[in-house]
């Protein structure tokens, strides 16, 4: 697999994402269902967004690892949040730590939604290649 990053500008580096990622000759592509703060017993977390993001990241890492992929090869990540303001002000550092930990270079879209399932307020949707 060959990944090429396209960044016509430099400002997005501070936000831990890239403008576009081209993948040529992948051996596989993993499309992950949205991962949220759902405990192993299937119960949704009712914690604050920061705590939910930490669990959603952990769940995403688990799914990707179990499938034999690596988080560093996430090429597209969509973040669904019930409050983009809360995400940016209270959770963005956790997101940046996740990106740095895996040395990721991914395209990102952050969307505010009216609601998510049950008591959830953050969900991560990823596409991963190898």
Automatic annotation (TrEMBL):
InterPro entries in the cross-refs: RutC-like_sf, YjgF/YER057c/UK114
Pfam families xrefs: Ribonuc_L-PSP
Gene3D superfamilies: RutC-like
CDD domains: YjgF_YER057c_UK114_family
Domain of life where this protein originates: Bacteria
Protein name per its UniProtKB record: RidA family protein
């Amino acid at each position: 697999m060959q990944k090429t990053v396209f960044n016509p500008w430099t400002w997005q580096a501070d936000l831990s994402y890239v403008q576009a990622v081209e993948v040529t000759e992948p051996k596989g592509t993993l499309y992950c269902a949205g991962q949220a703060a759902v405990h192993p017993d299937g119960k949704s977390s009712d914690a604050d967004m920061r705590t939910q993001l930490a669990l959603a990241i952990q769940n995403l890492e688990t799914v990707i690892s179990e499938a034999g992929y690596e988080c560093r090869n996430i090429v597209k990540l969509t973040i669904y949040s019930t409050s983009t303001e809360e995400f940016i002000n209270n959770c963005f550092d956790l997101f940046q730590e996740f990106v740095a930990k895996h040395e990721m270079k991914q395209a990102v879209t952050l969307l505010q939604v009216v609601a998510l399932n049950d008591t959830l307020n953050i969900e991560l949707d990823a596409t991963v290649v190898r």
